[in-house]
Structure formats: structure tokens, C-alpha cells
């Protein structure tokens, strides 16, 4: 891809509220959607050659984009090919990083492949899931990942093992990079096992029912804070009397206090950030627990005192 093609395809001042699950976020200077891994590589390499800063965005979950937006280029990753290799009772699936986790889970269930049904209602993409070691119901990405194809800035693509990725609770070696400097996840390969489709569908339906019963509908970022060891962020926030607290167009959910929702449909990122700061301060004051964000702040933010990473 040359400079002229990149410039011709890029949208200018694109509102990122159109590309996030919370429907919040200011404009990107430039935005390009890519449909294949080859396109993703080509656009990122061209941006590197031009000295143009860029950020890769997947499904737009687990990020709070500032009202001021993002400088440089935002690459929206829509690379969504899934390749199955089934041999006897074992299977391997290689997945482009733009595939939605819920889509991958459904496709595996339909083929009687066990191991990823926990992701049936987890928002976000495979790429974001690898970065944050997404998980639910006692399982996570690290449980089944065999390899991830990664491209560091200025380098050719390479494969990283789970050991290199250094997975932890909702984190990995990749998450230690700032979003604008982070290596790109191009694809991931998972090892799965055959099971009866009826068993997988039953488990998936249980997970869907649990989510519906405990988590709020509507536009939200996802779980706001990591659960501290031995406790739950939602319980601590609720115990501070903040369930249902509203600032501007954003609200701490009255159903689950670790979810902050765009209740008005036009909440500002600054509204959500004010709720984050309030919840963090109140939990620290009352319980002495320094909650760490599970989501990431993206774009032009004033420096925050919050501990974003472990």
C-alpha cells in the first residue's frame, strides 16, 4: 500500500463513538477499516514508514476513548477468517484477530469443539482478548491458546507462545505496552477437543442466562475494574453506595456496579471518567483497596493518578 492509497481510503475526523461498544469517543484524525490480515499488515507498515502514529481498534470493547479523540491513524480491524483443522477427537482453530469472541465461540459449538464456549457472550475481538487475556466463568484465553501471531513495530510478523505472552489475570506481556505502541495481534491458534454439541449448547445457554441475570443491557465498555484478590470490584463499589450513581449521561449500573453504562445514549467520556475517579477514590477511602482498571483509556487524556496496569 502506498501513501496515496492510504490517504484515499482514510476517513478524516471519524467519530470513534461509531466504533466502540459504549458509543463514546471523540474523532480520529484518520481512520481506515481493514478486512484481511494482509491489509492490516500493509496499513500498519505504511504508517510506520510514514512516521504516522497509529492505534489498532477491534470491536471497541474495554476501551474508553477520550472526548478529544485520537491523534494519527486508527486502524479498525475487521479481519475475520476462521480456519478449522479437526483430526479425530482433537482440533486446532486459527483465527484472525478481528473475529468477535462470541462469533468464534458459536462456530466452535456448532462443530462440537469444546474449550471456548465461555466466550459465548464476551464482547470484543480475539486480538483484544489475547492482549487482555479475556475470560469468564473460570476460563480464559490462556486456557486454550497454542500460539499467537504478533507483529512488533518495525519487525516482520512472528509467533509467540503462551510463555512469551506471560498471561496473568486480565493481562499479558502485550498489555504492558501503551495502546499506541503495542505490537499487533494478527491471529491466534487454539487447541480444542471434540464434545457433544448438546453439552456445549447447554453450557453456553447457562452462561447466557447468567449474564442476562447479572449484567446490564445497553451500551457499556465492559467490566470497569479488575476484581481484587479475594473480592469483587462490583461488591466494593456497591458497598460505597454508588450503585445507580449518575454523572452527565453515564451511570454506574443499578444492576451490576462494575459496569458503567451510557444510559443517555450520548454520554461523554469525561462523564465516565468522573465516575471512574469517584468509584476508585471511595473504595480506596472506605476499604483501602486500590482498584486497577480492566479497561484502557485511549486517546488524548490528561494524566491520571489511576493505576492502569499491574
The CATH class name of the largest domain reads: Alpha Beta
Provide the β-strand percentage band. 25-35%
The total strand number stands at 18
Structural class: alpha+beta
Counted up, domains total 3
Counting H and I runs of at least 4 residues, what is the number of helices?
Answer: 8
What do the pLDDT scores average to? Answer: 92
Helix/strand order, N-terminal first: HEEHEEEEEHEHEEEEHEHEHEEEHE
Low-confidence stretches: 303-310
Inertia-based shape: globular
Mind telling me the C-alpha Rg? 19 Å
| CATH architectural arrangement of the largest domain | 2-Layer Sandwich
Describe the largest sheet: 6 strands, antiparallel
How would you describe this structure to a colleague?
It is a single chain. The chain is α+β, with helices and mostly antiparallel strands and 310 residues long. The chain has 3 domains: 3-77, Uridine Diphospho-n-acetylenolpyruvylglucosamine Reductase, domain 2 (2-Layer Sandwich); 82-212, Uridine Diphospho-n-acetylenolpyruvylglucosamine Reductase, domain 3 (2-Layer Sandwich); 216-298, Uridine Diphospho-n-acetylenolpyruvylglucosamine Reductase, domain 1, CATH 3.90.78. It contains 8 helices and 18 strands. Strands 6, 7, 8, 11, 12 and 13 form a 6-stranded antiparallel β-sheet that branches. Strand 15 (246-247) and strand 16 (250-252) form a beta hairpin. The longest helix has 19 residues, at 269-287. The protein is globular, with a radius of gyration of 19 Å. The model is unreliable at 303-310 (pLDDT under 50).
Amino acid at each position: 500500500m502506498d501513501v496515496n492509497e492510504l490517504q484515499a481510503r482514510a476517513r478524516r475526523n471519524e467519530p470513534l463513538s461509531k466504533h466502540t461498544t459504549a458509543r463514546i469517543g471523540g474523532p480520529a484524525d484518520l481512520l481506515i477499516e481493514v478486512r484481511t490480515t494482509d491489509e492490516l499488515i500493509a496499513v500498519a507498515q505504511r504508517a510506520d514508514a510514514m512516521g504516522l502514529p497509529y492505534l489498532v481498534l477491534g470491536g471497541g470493547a474495554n476501551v474508553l476513548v477520550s472526548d478529544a479523540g485520537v491523534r494519527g491513524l486508527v486502524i479498525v480491524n475487521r479481519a475475520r477468517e476462521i480456519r478449522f483443522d479437526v483430526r479425530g477427537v482433537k482440533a486446532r482453530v486459527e483465527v484472525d484477530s478481528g473475529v468477535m469472541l462470541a462469533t468464534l465461540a458459536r462456530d466452535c459449538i456448532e462443530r462440537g469443539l469444546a474449550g471456548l464456549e465461555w466466550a459465548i457472550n464476551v464482547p470484543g475481538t480475539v486480538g483484544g482478548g489475547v492482549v487482555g487475556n479475556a475470560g469468564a466463568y473460570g476460563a480464559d484465553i490462556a486456557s486454550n491458546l497454542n500460539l499467537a501471531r504478533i507483529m512488533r513495530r518495525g519487525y516482520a510478523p512472528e509467533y509467540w507462545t503462551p510463555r512469551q505472552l506471560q498471561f496473568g489475570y486480565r493481562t499479558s506481556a502485550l498489555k504492558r505496552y501503551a495502546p499506541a505502541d503495542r505490537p499487533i495481534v494478527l491471529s491466534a491458534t487454539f487447541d480444542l477437543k471434540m464434545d457433544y454439541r448438546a453439552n456445549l449448547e447447554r453450557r453456553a445457554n447457562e452462561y447466557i442466562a447468567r449474564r442476562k441475570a447479572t449484567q446490564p443491557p445497553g451500551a457499556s465498555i465492559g467490566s470497569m475494574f479488575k476484581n481484587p484478590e479475594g473480592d469483587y470490584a462490583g461488591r466494593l463499589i456497591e458497598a460505597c453506595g454508588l450503585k445507580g450513581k449518575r454523572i452527565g449521561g453515564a451511570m454506574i449500573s443499578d444492576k451490576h456496579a462494575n459496569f458503567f453504562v451510557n444510559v443517555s445514549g450520548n454520554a461523554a467520556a469525561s462523564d465516565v471518567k468522573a465516575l471512574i475517579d469517584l468509584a476508585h477514590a471511595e473504595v480506596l477511602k472506605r476499604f483501602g483497596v486500590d482498584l486497577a482498571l480492566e479497561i484502557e483509556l485511549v486517546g488524548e487524556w490528561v494524566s491520571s493518578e489511576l493505576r492502569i496496569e499491574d
